[in-house]
User: Fold Dynamin family protein from Tothia fuscella.
Amino acid sequence: MSPAARRKSTAASASNAKTVQLDDAAHAPSENPIAPNMADPAILEKIDTLFAMGVGRLVPLPQIVVVGDQSSGESSVLEGLTGLPFPRNSGLCTKFATHVTLLRGPVKSITISIIPDKSATDQHQQAVKAWGLHDDTWFGKKSFAAIMDEAHKVMGLGKKSDGGAQNTFSQDILKLEIQGPDQQHLSVIDVSGIFRVTTKGLTTKQDQIMVTTMVRGYVENKRFISLAVIPANIDIATQEILTMAEEFDPAGQRTLGVLTKPDLVDRGAEQAILDLVNGHSHRLALGWSIVRNLGQSQLNSADKHRDDHEKVFFENNAPWDSLEADRVGVLALQMRLQHILSETIRNEFPKVKAEIHEKLAMKKENLKKIGGERITFQQQIRYLLEVTGSTEYPALRFATAIGRRNEQLAEMFEEHGHSYSSLDEPKRKDSTAAESAAATRSGSKRRRDEISLRLRNDPDGLEGLEDPEDTIAPKSETAILDWLTNVYVTSRGFELGTDDNAMLAITMKIQSSNWEPIALCYIRDVIATAHGLIIRLLGLLCPESRLRGGLINLLEQQLLQQYQKAIEHVHFLLNVERAGTPTTLNQGFNDELDKNRHDRREKDMRAKAVDMVFPDGQGEKYGEKSKYKAVLLPDVLAYKAADKTVQEHEAYYKVARKRFVDNVCMHSADYFLVTGPAAPLKLFSPTFVGRLTEEDLLGIAKEDHGAQEKRKALQKDIEGLKAAKKILY
Assistant:
């Protein structure tokens, strides 16, 4: 069967199904059983219900949207699909989006309502929702035009806006629901056509931008199928809607091209249109269709239906009669749209359910962050008490972060805490210890290899605290033994079992000169971490800048006082260790001293034994024998008093260093800043809230208008999403 014959057969069966007599037969609604319902009607109706509820603003819903440039024939295509006699040349139906739903029902009826713009004022939304009508009888173009005019007025089009300009376009959506026993389910949205040239007194540049933005919003929706309407008599490359569709759907998976006005195509240019429809050029995954809308003379004629005129045109005019039936005419287009919409809904329905569930959870979480209303004194107190109960987990994370900084402190003290190299460290002859220490203390010169002590950046609000020196020069590699060569130890102190406790105090103070900058930079890092966490925590718990700023201002003085106490305690510990009497009851000191003496003696004996037995320097070949000789040598070598002092100093220094690091971590950091009763994270507590005056609460906890509006919007969204879940599940 030829394409023309197949078209005749399909059109004949479709025409026989039209039995409804209307006021204007040329505009009869299409009620053609051209295809069985391809998806569960209940699911299709659920999607439409969600759209009418405004859920599509929160979660993308599967829909077909008719888009095109101005005068492309959008409204005529919509009229052909729905059978509704949209008024022409009035400009009424092109000033807002129109959502048309065809439903199968026991009784023929039409329901008209307006879905208000969610960003409009409450007054406008209430007025729009209050308008609507339901009619069990079909009507012709005159009565429908009157209804469209009424909707036009309800939306406020033509009136002056608050800014003095005339409202030409509306973000409201006119919803038309048509039911009948022979209707096939179809849902389409028609939006205003894109225009490039403004008309004085009718449209403005702002209108142009608004329409383009509105159309883009529909086209970029990932679940919308774009029905791109393009006149066949115009170069498609000039059509902005096709460029927009390619931008958001580069693979053409969501775009169905519809060519109009084939009767206006210049002779000789038909082949380019045939190539489009047959998929030979500018291919789209959903393909192309071609329709022929009624001309003005045919609109005024009541002797034939719209579809009859279209059928005659495509059957009797070459080369259009060569096209396949499923690509020609509104009836075939309607069938394709039903199939596409059904497949889209079937594929996307599970995803829609999942996204509604996720979106509802997210909205609830956002509402929880905002908290309850804070209009009254009691509500403000309750809210702040709820916020204070949310700081426990962040406090645990803070302790973890400080634990890592403690480890870094211990490593830094072990590596850089001492000014002189120990006995086992290699010597470096570039400068003396005194020169390096003096240069570091005076700041008269800065070394390229200075060691940075700060590991955290200060957040805002800590400018008033002590700012310690944040770098030190590397330790001199001149061994401490060289410095104490001329010192002779003559007495034994009762505290430590050493010969001269006064000398130990002197060497200890010099050797620990780096302790102060290292310890102070450490405590500043802990303070920076604590303060930064408090700022971030209040940012999470108190999204409102007014509330967050007010709490920080009230807490700031107490926080700075606590930070200062931690710093002062570091100074106290430094004074005890570096200016006090070297004292320890730690058995580790004696153990370390014995170990140092033993290691020093063995090392010296081994070297001398090798030199004595193997003067030719071959002792390394006989390591075991050298060691044997060293052990057998009697302890007859006299050690210098300085060497003994160094051994005692190094033993005590190691014990004191570990003790000091522990005390700084436990007292200054942990007690004052982490776990103590006045630790920063504990200052924001129920006790703190209980001490606030009504004036304090009014200044920080009273909810501003923006927060109230945000809560209302979230509550409204949550109600809508909950209702959506009831519909879907």
Summary: Confidence is low (pLDDT under 50) at residues 8-38, 426-446, 486-499, 621-640. The chain has two domains: 3-365, 392-607+640-683. DSSP finds 25 helices and 13 strands in the chain. The radius of gyration is 43 Å.
